[in-house]
Amino acid sequence: MTRRDWLKLTPAALPLLGTAQGQTPPTFPGMIVRMSQPENLEFPFAALNGVQTPTEHFFVRSHFAVPKLDPAAFQLTVEGAVEKPLTLTLADLQGMAKVTKSITLECAGNGRIFLAPQVRGLQWGFGGVGTATWTGVPLGAILERAKLKPTAKEVLLVGADLGSINADPPSPGPINFDRSIPLKKAKQDECLLAYNMNDNPLTPSHGAPLRAVIGGWYGMAAVKWLTKIIVLNEAYHGFWQTMDYAIYQRLPGGQPTLKPLTAMQPKAAIARPGLSEIVPLGQPYKLHGAAWAGEQTVDKVEFSVDAGKNWTTVRLSPPTAEFTWQLWEHTWTPNERGPVKLLVKATDKSGRTQPVQRDPDRRTYMINHLVPVEVTVR
Ligand SMILES: Nc1nc2c(c(=O)[nH]1)N[C@H]1C(S)=C(S)[C@@H](COP(=O)(O)O)O[C@H]1N2
Ligand SMILES: [Mo]
User: Fold this and answer.
1) Ligand 1 center–CA 225 separation, angstroms
2) What is the number of the ligand closest to the CA of 132?
3) Residues 15, 17, 19: CA angle, nearest 5 degrees
4) Does residue 138 have a cis peptide bond before it, meaning omega lies within 30 degrees of 0?
5) Does the structure show a pLDDT above 90 at 361?
6) H or E element: which one contains 217?
7) What's the pLDDT score for residue 168?
8) How far, in Å, CA of 96 to CA of 91, rounded?
9) CA of 364 to the centre of ligand 2 (A)
10) CA-based nearest residue to 108, from 96, 89, 121
11) What pTM did the predictor assign?
12) CA-wise closest residue to 308 among 357, 378, 375, 360
């Protein structure tokens, strides 16, 4: 065929591209590569089609290469401010009373691509978020077995992955990925040490053979390849909660102080229509997406086509579990041709909602200000 012939091809003439008769066109366009080494993959949010995200569609956020961990030789140690330091094999953990929970994880940098001017870090669009069912042991049960000393204050979760961060400021040579959780949170039911994701053993990318899952918090607390727990008597100030994954909070006098990121903020995201989608004039279009609010429950999701002057409450699916996002949908019949900016906004039961303006104190994280999706009505 000549170049001209290729240019004339219609989908019907292209059975090799998956549109042969009787075949449905693919609805999952593949993951978006944000970095290939280490692997960082974004879920194409337009492909959202249910509460649970299949494992192979679940975003991947890794700062270093996947460490090689043999499940048969795997050991988790629990040390520090405990009466009984522990060394547990995977079989020991799997022999304990297990729990399964559906939990939404969102990367603290999700939506970073919408910040202007551009900031450093992975340029996530809407898809640095997903929901899976996690099976494992409550973190609290492990702490109970190790018998905390009365001085215990924080629980440091240490991953087996190791590397150097050459940003400004750099890490002090090679460091593990780690993160501490205040004891009060660590004892809650939504904090798990999981070995299964969506009813199958964790994949290497998602932390095999063991990871933490900290319900309601941004993803950085969900330490993958977990091999060590150190109970601390004081607050931890490691790289991943000071140089990284920390925001400024204002003291009463207005002085900014760095605080490690914790709970996810309320957020609603549109799956369809996507940016630059053509929406037919005068025909009902079913918009849909998801909404979540960290440790809170979503109260309502609203929709606007006039830059937030007027809001319409959309249909929100009832919560399927705590710490799990909810799906929403709304039928919109556009009555005017041309470009339209669509906005959605989540409000949680405590009354928190999404800010219109970006707060620079949040540095490059916790991105939930209103971001329009522009479509064309034709
Ligand atoms: N050991 C280790 N754990 C980690 C990370 C990491 O780089 N190393 N990334 C964290 C971040 S920032 C996020 S958002 C989540 C992502 O989990 P996922 O890759 O399973 O989606 O893992 C967290 N746990
Ligand atoms: Mo993250």
Assistant:
1) 9
2) 1
3) 55
4) no
5) yes
6) none
7) 84
8) 9
9) 11
10) 121
11) 0.94
12) 357
